[in-house]
Amino acid sequence: MITVRGLKKKISKDFHLEIGELHIRQGLCVISGASGSGKSTFLELVASASDPDEGELLWNGIPYKQHLGVLRSQIGYVPSEVIAYEEMTTEQLLRYMAGLKGNLSTQSIESVLTLFRLVDIRRRRMNSLSVGIQRRIILAQAFLGAPSIMVMDEPLKHVDPFEAERLRTLFALYARRNTMIIADDDPNAWITNQHLTMESGKLYDNTTY
Ligand SMILES: Nc1ncnc2c1ncn2[C@@H]1O[C@H](COP(=O)(O)OP(=O)(O)OP(=O)(O)O)[C@@H](O)[C@H]1O
């Protein structure tokens, strides 16, 4: 379980994130909200890609700061924009990310190549692939090593509808055993355990338990 406690993050003079106490449980949690409401800012904090100005995040009761190294090996992160890594092939990018995550096995690379239907394009450079396929590669790197916490910012943006449907099912299965947090404008497209709404930097839990 992820606990958010008194989190504050100032982004500009016009915008800051401010979240009191909130718990995100195992399962699939969707965050929706208007453009600019702060979803990406919050997901960056949950993924430990940025630090709060005040407050803290805890994973199973332990503050992020106390076990950041171990924690990061347990976080998969899909940012909102595709990071191009233009010159790398699919396989090179996955090997690079597997290295960053602590030299994960070849088997773990092979399994995400299969899971995200990337086997046939493993030797293609990122800059020769469509935005939709690039997105699938970015999704694949997040699943390397099967992390317990999956943080995904509009994961199915640019992905074709057929593939998106397949991936929704895959994510739902994955979320049965893990904590998956997804920012998406359409919460109804997902079978959620928890639904949060972001409004002007504040996060509300709309789940009916
Ligand atoms: N690097 C930045 N510099 C200045 N302002 C920023 C920066 N990044 C985000 N913002 C501002 O912070 C606020 C929150 O942005 P954020 O991207 O977190 O919202 P969002 O809900 O994810 O929006 P979207 O759905 O459009 O991605 C917005 O007002 C945005 O303009």
UniProtKB/TrEMBL annotation:
Domain ABC transporter: 2-209
Cited SUPFAM superfamilies: P-loop containing nucleoside triphosphate hydrolases (SSF52540)
Keywords: ATP-binding, Nucleotide-binding, Transport
Top-rank lineage group of the source organism: Bacteria
Gene Ontology terms for molecular function: ATP binding
Gene3D superfamilies, sorted: P-loop containing nucleotide triphosphate hydrolases
InterPro entries found in the cross-reference section: AAA+_ATPase, ABC_transporter-like_ATP-bd, ABC_Transporter_VariousFunc, P-loop_NTPase
PANTHER family from the UniProt entry: ABC TRANSPORTER ATP-BINDING PROTEIN ALBC-RELATED
Name of the protein: ATP-binding cassette domain-containing protein
Organism: Paenibacillus arenosi
Organism ancestry: Bacteria, Bacillati, Bacillota, Bacilli, Bacillales
